[in-house]
User: Fold these one by one.
Assistant:
Number 1:
Amino acid sequence: MEFKYIAILVCLILLAFSLFKEFKRTDKSRLIWRILASVLAIGCFALLIIPIKYETHLQQRANEIFLLTDGTNPDSVSKIKGKKYILSSANATELKSSKAKSIENLSYFLKANTTIKKLNIYGYGLTDSELKSSKGYEISFHPSANPTGIISANWQPKIKATKSFLVQGIFQNAGKKPVKLILKGLGSTIDSVNINAQSTSPFSFKNKPKQTGKAIYQLIALQEGDTIAKEPVPFIVEEQPPMKVLILASFPDFEYKFLKKWLYDNQYPLAFRSQISKNKYSTDFLNMDSLNLNRINSTTLKRFDVLIIDEEELAAINTEERSSIDNAASNGMGLFIRISTVKPTTTLSAKFSRYETPALKEKTLSLNIKDENSKLTKLPIEQNLFLKAGTNDQPLITDNTNKILVNSRISGAGKIIISSLSATYNWLLSGKKADYTDYWSTLLSKIARKKLELQSLRIIPQFPVVNQKIRFIADLSEENKIPSIKIDDVKLSPRQNMELPFQWDAISWPQKEGWNNLSVNQLNQSFYVYQRNDWQSLKNQAKIESREQFLKNSVDVSDKNAKTNQIIYNEVSKWYFFAGFLLSAAFLWYESRIIKDK
């Protein structure tokens, strides 16, 4: 039996007992009033338990719903007249008490309710996948104010121990008070920047981690001492791989001397050969066993990942040795050529165009690592030799006027780099070791012989969350071999890209926050799973940008004039019944205690 029937039965029994007591009462005065008061009191009591609803009619657009997303102002929700829904993925807890129905999956909901033609979306909006499922519907956006916080962020998830860690992004301060943004790592403040009120400012933090392995820095936003954001920045510092380097020098200048010491200090296996006189050489072997370097051939070059040579030495060696170097570069070895004159002296170095400009005395050289958008400290040298970018070239190092000083080109399976910088050791002499390290570690990593089977790995989305879909995209060197992809010993089923056969992807739903172990062909590729509320401002800004792009490409497809008579059931306020019960009970008490005694 339903509860309401039990409540009615109990109230009827109570009413019968009350009426029986009234009729048995000796004093029959005011009997009618007492019976009416008893009926009213028990009736109101019953209606307090059992809600009473009534039917109303609302004229609204045909087949439209109101969808509440993150950022919706709770005060505006009460003004919405119509069917309100909220996505279960929304983080706004204050909206979940707005009597809006929850939707687990927007795509499935729209497919199940085929009569819906229009979506009224409040707040920051929908994700890219949710917007795709809403194509073909008339969309009406009611956007919220721009979020305050980090709306863009980028950093390298993996760095070598010799490189600096760089965090860059954009902070949007929509408030009326300034914000202090701090980068903290291992319990200490690394760097900070102030963001003015009602402004959007880029930020850039650079740090040289002293530890290796997994680490989590934090970006903390403070406003008058209060923490308004605290975002994790996970990354991995890897040991420098055993990259074998061969240097062939026409003479041991200061550039080679400092480079040789830096390579030794950073555990690079190094073979160094310097010419003393014709066909006579001085050799050094650091972090590796010695071998015969009197004659350079293909067998010798296969032992090394990078060859560094100046143009004078390249011209001095015989034709057979130059041919071996050219073939080795085409087969994967990295070739680094130092030049000092405007006129090329070998066919290898002649592949790159160069030019001279008048030297500006007492000037310093400002350098940028082009693809990393990173600036190096000014180099105190005079520079007049520069390079021209060819059609197939990729400039690596430029000055502040965008003139090229280090250029590169693919050569078969390898890469050739040519540099007109002759005195980078001045960074070390002026105490700028970090810039010297950034320069050489970047260039060596660009041209080193590729050894790993896994060429690249991408994770979508940028900030994976527990129990949400995550996609791994791996580019492999072997096209037709099915890769083995596992997460914590759970094997995934990879799919091959039909257009790019070397590319494979796999789908998973991570089960735990923090670091997770991913294995691709027994090669570990750890990744970080974030908490649900991490990087919320960035995600909300991404929704805003997706919304604006969607509006540019969308077309209304619904009938804008169609309206329908919607039936809505409203509940009668229980305060009326409570007031009736209170007045009736008060009258019965007053009549039996005061009027009767008079």
Number 2:
Amino acid sequence: MQGAIIWCHALAAMLLAGVAAAQVREPVGLVQRAVLAAALLLSALWALGVAGIGGGDVAVSAAGTARDLGWLAALFLLTPAARWRGGAFVAIAACMVLAASLRIAAEHVAGPSRIAMTEAMRALHMLAAAAALVLAGRTMLSARARGGVDVLAGALALLFGAELAVDAVAWAAGGWRAELTLARGLALALVGVLIAVRDGRRRLRLSRAVVLQAVALGSAALVVVALVAGSGLIAALGGAQARVALTAFAVGTGATLATLLSTRWLRAWLRVVVSKHLFTHRYDYRSVWMRFAATLVPPAEAPRPLAERAVTAMAELTDSPAGLLLRIEDNALVAGAAWRWEDAPREGADAALARHLAATGRIVALDEVRAGSAPAGEAAAVPDWLVATREAWGIVPLLHGERLVGAMVLARPLVDRPLDWEDFDLLGVAARQVASYLAEDDAHAALAEARRFEEFNRRFAFLMHDLKNLVSQMALVARNAERHAENPAFRADMIATLRDTSQRMDGLLARLSHRPAAVAEPPRAVPLRALAERIADARRAQHGIEVIGGEVVALAEPAALETVLGHLIQNAVEASDPGSRVVLAIGGAGDRALLEVIDRGCGMDAGFVRDALFRPFVSGKANGFGLGAYEARQLVAAMGGSLTVSSRTGEGTRFRIALPRAAAGERVAERAA
């Protein structure tokens, strides 16, 4: 401990001497800076004495008194002029001088007289420190706006408060301890740091959190001092029952402190008191806005709905314990998301409130409505259930531009107070931010719904196209049956066509159902000629189809490729005369398998092929949907292939499907299957 005391006071002496030199170099405020520099030098001298000689020496005690008088003079220059100022400071200085005199006199006497003088000296020193602490605190609060004075007064309050605390502990403990000497040195070093950064470019700006923590630590220190003093008093007066009394005192004070610290209302009250008396504004806008933004942003794990996060963020701004969101529905406000709000109404609020908030954009203080001091139009617009809910404190309109998207009802804070201009300003800005979030969320929801409808319409259009093809196919079969019903071969082809149509209609029904979509079939080896012949056999009752070319194996999805061929063959049949065959040509070129659908029908001009053929909902047929060629190309592209077309008006059309050729291993596996 002795080493810590020496190091602490030696470093404090160097720090204080350096700060004093910096004060002398400043040309502004010569008298004040000279007095401050003298107090710093005297403090440095006292710290050196404690480090080199010891705090109990008479000369060091005299240096300590000189130090205290120097700081008292500096505080006198800071304190605003008043009639009582001179008398108060003279009385404090007299107490300090008298205490020093008693300390010196005590060195020359012994026995009870020495003890009495020491106790009187300590009492006078505590009285002077307490009075100086009060004056420093008063100066700090009254001079907040004067550059650096608040920090300097706060440093002096810290100095005299530390002196008072260590003297009180020494008195309660019945003697001086080495730990108290170390505490005085640390407090003096901290005072030097505060003075060094107090003004100009070095102005120390304490955050609200630091001040609150400092107040909490100071309060805890005072409580500790009070507990130690109380324990000392009980030990001195308790006699034989002192141990029992000390135990009861410890248990009682511990339970009381635990109860007070766990009381949410007391914590809120302390925050309000500190903010009201130590700061110009109620809110620490930086930290408040950072907390507000963090609450609005959803966390990565278990995100809450935006509406609930918005209510929480708005309520936490004013320390409201609960909040309720009212959303616009049919031009009226209805209860929506809630945060800790009990018994939210289920019926719609009066539409008059929505109209009033949209027209005025004014925050409604419900206490004014209840007291009858609110404007008549506002009082008439507020619904009865909100007036009857005593916990309801204010209604904040949520305006996105000029449009009302809702309103926020905030519960009364734990420490009740009226809404004021700071609340209106902060809540107004936050409400516009929340309104933009809610409006954007509504826009996203509407866009998602529109996309779902668009997807539904797109799928339904494809289904209608397929259904039209099936109807056309059945119509051709019925027309041909009138001429070839007696032909056994035609009847066999007709049965195959009907079976194919039935299967395709089952597929359409499956696509129309609400069951989840089937997983896409993986690409595999598909013999093109076998597939083409099967499709041709199923359609011969509809129209004559010829398959030419040798067997080529492609890598494709069989169901998708069959759908593509169905579209292209149907278009070819509708474009051809009844006696003109449609040709399915199989071939290959390098690593590509080719399948062509050729007709000798009416054909298409180059402009239509270039600009309209593969565009959805554009068709050259009177009753066409314009989706067959579009879906065919999409499906072929999904299989890694390409669909090209060459056509000439009056000569016919050739659609060429180029797909990846299956590897040898895949063809062997296909034959084995």
Number 3:
Amino acid sequence: MQIKAPSWHVIKWIVGVFAGLAVIGGIIGALIVSLGLVTISARPPHNALTRTILHYTFKRSTANAGGSVDVPADLDSPARVALGIQHYANVCSSCHGGPELGQSPVALSMRPRPQHLASVVGEFSDEQLFVILRDGVRFSAMPAWPASQNFDEIWSVVAFLRALPDMTNAEYVAATQRALPEDAPELAFDAPDQLSGLDVGIKAPPMDEYLYATPGTGWHEYASNGDVIATCAACHGAKGSGDATAGQAPNLTVPSAAYMTKALREYANGTRPSGIMTTVAASLTDAQIKGLSEYYASLPDIAPPRDQAALGDPVAGEIIATAGLPDQALPACYTCHQNVSEAAGMLIPPIAGQSAAYVRHRLDAFAEPYWTGAGTSAWQPMHWIAKSLNPQQRADLAAYFAQQAPGGRAPVATLQPMDAANARQLVEGVCKECHTVEGVGGPSGEYPNLTVQTATYLDLQLHAFRSGNREAERMRQVAEKLSDKDMSDLAQYFGTPAALPSPTPQDVFATAEEIAVGGEIASNGIPDKNIPACLSCHGPEPTSALPIIARLQGQAPRYIQDRLQALGSEKSADLDTISPMHAIARDMTVDERHDVAAWFAAQAPLPK
């Protein structure tokens, strides 16, 4: 018997019936919701079906997301466990309990209830635990990690969770007991004069129902109780060296008070990413932040804990730290991190005397593709620098810095002694065509006056041209033919003697009024466009402290203008991680670029 397909009219009738039922069902559902008949009470437990669906969905979702996660090699490190247990005690224990300890009655009154982790952690893989901590769980009280970067620190919590089922109550209590170190001051919580903004998580409406501000209330009221230093000592140790967590937390005897104050403020407002530190710092008043910074800066410098893993070669790390990697346009680490005076207005932390584990994890975090910067500084070069290093080089640097004594000035490798005859031969054969024998460029201003720069800057730029990190086809062709010794000789030939004045432009470049406008931008920036003052980086003190920053005073005006035009174009968009200048030049008008160039050109070259 042949089965006849339903006619089009029958199909339309069936579809119409189901559509009508759907509309009726929607109306009934909306009516039930509108009348408040749907219970949202958290008092009765979920029924078996709801509980099964929720847990199955939860486990399948986290298992899927964990497929793209790589577990670090040092996950079973006791140091990671030591750091993870402190964050767990600060935050997680309020809901999830502890070893041989029950859960809070408040947590057990939630729906869904947070699990007792010591009982269920074995049901999840390392990758799943990481995903749950990083992303949280929607429609439950499980929050996402309170930072959108710096996820390496999550692994320390995972490390503790792995150790949790075998940990005794006595071990847990001993590890989480906190006491004020000897002679440490109590830091009273005084009512703040005003609240500061908090940039954490994705803000969503209704905005008037939330208060993104600091200081705020914490999970444990160490701030209002004045027990701030006791809380800090849990990770950083009684003497501040980081020994309590075997170097996972930084050595606080190394940085200055000014740097720590800046860092704590940025942790507090969320601009410096750290789920661990933002949780702590967001509870502190500004007076407590200053008190903490002054206290730890006053402690004697202490060597960091030794790294038992010994993943790096300190000899190889010393080469990068003192000489950099010129072919990758990477300057020596010490150029910025050890010998820079805070008087130059740059709060750059020293890193000699930090533990190998801490430095390695920080460099690895900087190298992650999601890293976009930290803090409120105009330029954040560490993502580009760290990703230019391979994991072994980062470990080598960490091993080297951990062996250095905290404090004091550190060595910086200098250029090889100049071969003057080789330099003059290269100048005659190559450089003078554009830059003249003296290196000052021609009256057209098309080519830069090399003598206003330092030898260190010129050497780094020649390597950048050769490697392609700085685009200029003509200079690339020249640099490709130069050896490292040739570059060093040329850099010193032009960069070591006193600067010479640039040739007078063929035509009048700017009026006095335009120069004055440029001076205003150079000194004060353009606040409406969030453009900083040029002199905050290119002024006498910063360029003296950091020889890798270009000196613009006395440079040819047309050259500065052309560079600003090029830096502001889309072809320079990928330079953001190397230099802040693309974003700055992009937002300036043609006239603003011209006027700034005119002002710098009108200044006397800086002494070297």
